[in-house]
Give the backbone structure.
Amino acid sequence: MPDKLLKNRPLKKAILGAVDNLPPTPNILHKARAIIADPNSSFKELEKLIINDQAFAVKIIKIANSSYYGRVKKVSSIQDATVIIGMKNLSELITIASASSLFKKTLIGYELPARAIWRHSIGVAFGAKIIAGMKYPALADDAFSAGLIHDVGKLILDEYVYERKEAFQEFMYDGQQTFLEAEKEILGFEHAEIAAKVCKKWNFPKSITVAIRYHHQPSRLMSNKLAHIIHVADQITESTGMDIDGITLESSGNSLEVVGLQIDEIAQLMDEITEYVDQVGDTVGGS
Ligand SMILES: [Fe+2]
Ligand SMILES: [Fe+2]
């Protein structure tokens, strides 16, 4: 085993311990996913589940009234939301409301305000959903969920990055190296690896866990379309100025071809992502 990996083993153990100690995902997310996946389920069951948690219901109504989801008509109750927004969009709202509570604090190690990582995350979620919808529609729901939490590993790593602030600054002093490269060099692993452990802990489907694990190097998994979709959505979102990893479209390897995205589609996507984030981003989370 290389020296660096050997040296960082206790650190990795400590970080994985921190992942183990994370609180479980809100039950509501898993219950809602199960209801939505069941063809025999009804709006009523979903309504009942949401109404049981008042704070959660308020969040759902807020997002439902954002200018993106609330275009058709404003909603004032969960009953309204299920009818006006529909089951499919409601599932998206539940995912956003559940994830929003994760992105509440500034990442002092990464020097990222909560709002920046939240906007990046919902940008990638939306971009991934649109790309999947265009090219592989069956993956659209998973693409949205995976996009939303693809960088959750940063939340865990932040305190360890902060403890090594000087080493990170030194490594990145000339602006040639990204945080991602610094993670690998200084910690011996990257946030995607930790994010995959979080997904496992939270019982996310394996397809999402694997795609998140390889969202920086999807070509290591030849046939995993979801990993390529998240990778491309991540880079397109970074190109809109919502950049937190310093990666560019030029570093996308063969992902654009795998996903089948054309240059003119990229420009269009950049506009759509920016609009979505502006309309939905500040309704919940990131502050
Ligand atoms: Fe990332
Ligand atoms: Fe990202």
